[in-house]
Amino acid sequence: MIAEAPMQGERAETIFEKSKAGRRAAVLPDAGVPEPPLEELIPAKLLRAEPPRRPEIAEPEIVRHYNRLSRRNFDLDTGLYPLGSCTMKHNPRLNERVAALPGHAGLHPAQEPKRAQGALELMWLLQESLAEICGLPHVSLQPSAGSHGELAGLLLTRAFHADRGEARTKVLAPDTSHGTNPASVTMAGYEIVKVATDERGGVEMDDLRAKVDDEVACLMLTNPNTLGLFDENIAEIAALIHEVGGTLYYDGANLNAVMGHSRPGDMGFDIVHVNLHKSFSQPHGGGGPGAGPIAVSERIEPFLPRPQVVRREGDNGSGPTYDLDFDRPKSIGRLRGFQGNFGVFVRSGTYILSLGADGLAEASETAVLNANYLKARLAQGRAGKYLPVAFDRHCMHEFVLSGKPMKKELGIATLDLAKRLLDFGFHPPTVYFPLLVEEALMVEPTETETKESLDAFAEAIEQILTEAEEDPEKAKQAPHTTPVRRLDEVKATRKPVVRQPLD
Amino acid sequence: MLAAIGVESTAELFEQIPAPLRVDGPLALPAGMSEAEVYERLVELASRNVDREEQICFLGAGMYDHYVPAIVDAITQRSEFLTPYTPYQPEISQGGLQAMFEFQTMMSELTGLPVSNAGLYEGPSSVASAGYLAIGATKGRRRFVVSHGVHPQSRETLATYATGFDATIQEVGLDDGLTDAAALAEAVDGETAAVFLQSPNFLGAIEDVERLGAAAREHGALLVVAVDPMTLGVLKPPGECGADIALGEGQPLGNRLDFGGPSFGFFCGSEELIRRMPGRIAGETDDVDGRRGFVLALQTREQHIRREKATHNICTAQALNALAATIHLAWLGREGFRELGELLVRRTAYARERLAAVQGVELLHEAPVARELALRLDAPVEAVLERCAERGIAAGYPLGREYPEYEDGLLVAITERRSREQIDALAEALGAAIQAEHGDSVANSATKSPGAPR
User: Fold this and answer.
1) What average pLDDT does this structure show over B204-221?
2) Which of A45, A468, B16, B181 qualifies as a FRET site for A292, CA 20 to 30 Å off?
3) Closest residue on chain A to B105 (Cα)
């Protein structure tokens, strides 16, 4: 089936191009106070000569404009979004409803803790829940996203070593790691050292042994890794790093595979970040907001960012109270303003309350079942022939295929397959990652897909490959039905136009 | 499904996890609940917060109680904006990408700088990100000069990040509310990577950025200016004052208070800095049929391509919050945005005069202000705040928490939601609270100590 109703007839027009002088939407309150000329209140040299140019447009046209724009987006509520490492699971609407309650959305961040007890209790509950899920005793909710959590973890590592009078220089990470890992390492002032992957898709132990020494500050690992495989040697890996005094960092992007089944703390990790916008159902919003809380072991706890949400037990029979603790002398300090992305905490806290212990474990179980089922489906027929799985064993919540035979025999690249999938109404998997798999496709269906939608996806792949045997051009020229077709990304980088010229 | 996989049970799939590392039994979390029960629980939690509809809110200090127009909710709650991932597949993400392009245009206009990214996490970490950029842009200079008027949270975040890139920070003090120009000029040298200012600064005072920035230009340091976007309908934009980077907290534009987040940070720079910018940037291009379209431009700066050589580690940021700002700014329009800026300035001027006339209240500084003002109280600030809160007024932010030298200081924020009547009510509440504190202290001093409050 080919998706219908393309909007290719409609030329993109920006809101500025819809502007007509004198139109407006907002009606502001009267000042209700004396209105002297501004120059009497602020020296003229500090004032703006001309107001910034803004679209002049009435409310109905604003609504239409963004409504039409929205129709030029594909979204998770419309169809399967098997983007590996991104965990595109359903976003329950209850979460949106409770996040919008005035007591949450309208709460000023500098409100006195005694007048924000509900918010602080919610944060504390989320901290406790994440600590239990991760198997580590202490949590900071402050980091704003996964990469922010990574930076936090590396700065915690730095503070931990500095506290012991050590300045180490290297951070190890597998060659399959997410791009944020090495980027965070550089920002934290360390040198990244890549560790090879073995033939089963895990860390190459000999290579690791060769690279572990007392200059190693930390090892960053995703487990299951970006191949969707659980590294069975994790206990030995942890022992190696701990022997030389390094910390072990868990990139929690793939936590959706193991909730209630295995805990990073039990694997030996010291620091874990959790992507609330992945495993805990915060909507991705087209690129955020998210949140990247970190859970840490006892030895890292003194260095956690401040403030921390704490619970104080009541005395004389009164209930507990919650507070923000700024008095943390060894803290690395703040990573951002105020207390973190609270609206995200409301949504993820709601998700955890809804699912509970059993529900979270079942979510991971179904995510792993769905991934393995889809992997099995794609091992059949033409997919099995042209798109072999990179490491042939049971996967966790995602798996990686290689488009190498497809490219060689059909002449279509992974990119072409991805673009052709758009015509079939599917978001493509993550492509060309991890880097060590040639022509990689990384598929993560999540637990919120049905067998029917997985079958439909497998059938679409089969149909595209069948078609490509006859007519590879169809894929090479794809997509055909989307609002725009392939875009010139080189031009956008070589001669960047990143704002609209206005006159 | 199990048969297709070739296993008897899902448990077999989890056998790749070594047995000692498998969780034995359920996690120690409560059992799941029905939607109705979870809703009740969350309503109960929310009811124990005092929100902006239950109190007249003069709290600011970086986040402000502005009115968010209804269309912001209606549009940002659409599935097509709420639920997609980052637009890595541009053909089916034109809506989000074009919205980013519009956002960038609006922020560039706002700040008077030619390049805007599509947003960062929030204000303070954007300041820290400018520090990271400055080190690269000045070929490894590792010294920052920071005004004491920059938001304390921004200064602290910059210091946290700076331990990673091994930079030192020198702070420059304030003089009658404004950055001490002579001290700043003295602090900046040839090793300085960037000078950080904020205007209006944390005390609400509008800095003469142009004049202060001369020291940065002279020594080849970047001038980084944090701004409150809501004031830029009337205040001279940083781009016209010589700033290399203008950034700030985006919450006032279309975003909720949300107890501090999610909001977004904006980050604009000069043309020369475009390839060093952090975060996503949307760019205009054409498709194979010559149709206009938008893509993520300059991705070679980013972590998913460049890894350890990326300009920043940021990935997921705050796209939906930036969209809310874009809609809010379109709704305000050219005239509305200017009018709102003027409204803030005039109501703030009124509040300043009205509050300074209250017995026991004086101005903390005389510098010009736009939307926030600093007072000194002749009574313990926290106690006065508590008395005002009992009358349903959040009177402001106690400056002593961050500035020990202003232990008697109170920061009062004005938005279009704060009417003249509410400002009058604040004046009355402050006066009554100060008087009551004086009464108490007289009573106390008779029996306990001779020390009266300042």
Assistant:
1) 97
2) B16
3) A499
